[in-house]
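quick one, 202 residues, struct below
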Amino acid sequence: MKLTVTTFVTLDGVMQGPGGHDEDLSNGFELGGWVSAHIDQDFGRRIDDIFSRADAVLLGRTTYDMMYPYWSRFPDQDNVVAAALNNLPKHIATSRPEGLTWDNASPIEGDLVEAVRRLKEQPGRELQVHGSHGVIQTLLEAGLVDEINLFIFPVVLGEGKHLFGPGTVPAGMRLENGEISSTGVFIATYTPIGEPLLQEAE
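---
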């Protein structure tokens, strides 16, 4: 399977607490809920397209805890996102394996990198990571990410968890496609292509 990452970020690269004010208050973050004002048909269409390609999902425990109460009880279980999240295998990276009550959810045992390598060897289309800040950092460092879907929102927060923060491994990215929604969200797909292209020292 191809491993794809989908995440929402602000213009300054923050991915913390997109869905609601109280979604992720870690480290004193108080600026959550910056996505809802920018949701439109373009946003929904691209999200549906991404989830329709999933054959398995990989989540960190924090993201699992955020998604489970909402999507497991979503009124329209035929919704593309709800159907994927409720019916597909969900692999949870966690040091707290207790309480994973969502159907088809199981904890990843042992080393995350090795476990993901094994998952990628299984047949299927996409193993999708959604949100999951810490998981993304580990997978990027290990070179396991095949594609990144970024929804870049016209918001600057100045604080919070950054997608590409200190310690990020330098990498080049190739833009595969991109579009701008009616509310100014840049929706782009990138493929990591190895080391960044840098000017040689003279």
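The chain has five helices and eight strands.
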